Amino acid sequence: MTAQASTHLGAISRPVRKFVGSLTRIGAQTKFYTEILKGIGVALAHHKREVIRLIAQMSLGVGALAVIGGTVVIVGFLSLTTGSLIAVQGYNTLAGVDVEALTGFVSAYLNVRLIAPVTATIGLAATIGAGATAQLGAMRINEEIDALEVMGIRSIAYLTSSRVVAGVVVVIPLYCIAILMSFVAAQVGTTFFYGQSVGVYLHYFNTFLNPTDILWSFAQAIVMAVVVMVVHTYYGFNATGGPAGVGEAVGRAVRASLVVTALATMLITLAIYGQSGNFHLSG
Amino acid sequence: MEIRRNGIHPIWWTFGLFAVAATLVLASLALFLGTFRTYVPITLESDRAGLVMESGAKIKLHGVARGPALRWFHFSSGMAFRTRRIFVGSLLRAERRRLKARVQHIAGRSGVKNPAASHRRQD
Amino acid sequence: MTTLARIASPARGLGEFFAMALDVAVLMFRPPWAWREFILQSWFVARVSLFPTFMLSLPYTVLTVFVENILLVEFGAADVSGAGAAQGVVTQIGPVVTVLVISGAGATAMCADLGARTIREELDALRVLGINPVQALVVPRVVAATMIALLLNSFVTLLGITGGFLFSVFFQHVTPGAFAASLTLLTGPRDVVISLVKAALFGMSAGLIACYKGISVRGGPQGVGNAVNETVVLTFVALFFINIMATAVGVQVTR
Asked: Which chain A residues are Cβ-neighbours of C230 within 8 angstroms?
């Protein structure tokens, strides 16, 4: 394809050809994404056992990750640390203007809208995303994927679409844990470490906790799971260049997925909450 | 790396991706700016010049559920003449009809002009 | 017996990690210094980090500023949105985006590179030649990661505040002058210094973890893939943990 393009462009200089080449690569990537999405039906129909195996593997991890407790523990821990930022930073900033009683409100507001979705996405990309890329990359350089093709199994559906489905299934309880941990961290930090009364904290927390917001952030998490798995499996599936190439693929996948999910999170949050923000402090 | 089985050159996929991305960004922007919301224009006259109402302030109307904000939108000042458009997009159709009826009732009572309350956004 | 060994192996891994870290700390001050490797690694980390940093700091800042401004507009305090933006960007978003980029981009590349060399037995060959691989390969990478993390943090802060300014002024109708004037309301030089210290700690930890995982690879090419995966996870976990600890310390210091 690139050769055909260059004969058409003739004597045009290399930068233009390189630019066209990178655009072509983006196009091939997009085509791969549609193949992945098309294969979801096949994966659900023919490869159910693989999907279930992947769900187990993704949630509880393999190897050293399993010893730490897998994706569940890692995402929970990340949410714990970012949720406690509300306690540490929020409480002290509010105490500077003597409204530290409102820390419960800050927790209900910021955790749901900003911190839990972002942290869960980052945790997803790091654990199941990077894991998928590493696994698929190792399979690719060992030529296992070519062997699958020879055996007549649709490799894209079997390997990548099943991981996308497993990722979406895994993200739902995972996101529950992420939100709960961030709430717990904020509460424990404020009430236990900074000594605020539990009743005060919970009063403001419960007053401003909006169930609709939580549902919207769930929807966000599911969209992010799809994006992360699709991007990571692409880079894993197309890894080249031996073991160093696998590592490079993981790096590129993590970068790409973080950028795409950051943009997507921003657009979705802006669209959901609109200019008024769907937020009422009083009245 | 891949064998071309069909005739679509990958570069068309690139344009497809850019088109989809642009659509998503524009849709998100439109949702953010509230382009898809419906409005009921209402005019209120008052004799006092001291009434001040800034754009974006939230109001309540009798008989209307508190819910998402009803918002003042457009502001053209005259001494005792204010034009308002109230955003009602998040109300149900029945509630919207009730609001229109109620506003016309109030307007009629206080001698206020009420231009045709349409559900189309007017600029 | 095997259960004990399985429980003990992460503990052993932790111990070896600290041993390597101690080695790095000592060998950093002993000649011969690997200048060339240091410059090459710095350039590499900077090269792979610039674009993701740019593309990550803007959305996260816009997100934070958007959420904060909704709140401030409710109070009628939209003019101090600059204070919220500066506080968020300098104390949290700067370090967090640095974490993400350094771990995601730099750490994985370092780990993959060292891992590939380990399974090719290149490190053993270096040891045979009398060169300490920690001194020749790990020390320059750790120092490069630290320095680039510091620089990236400043870059993110600048981009973040600019992005927050543009979003607030053009989309949420905040007065530009008020935004700029309120930037230093809550954030002072102490916060900036703490943020830089955090970034340096992140860079150092990410470099150490990545290099340790790289030189302790076992099991062929699959082992390298696993090592890179574990690097990403461990650096994220460690750096988020350091973030909360440093934030708690910093908040106490600036009280």
From this structure: 63-65
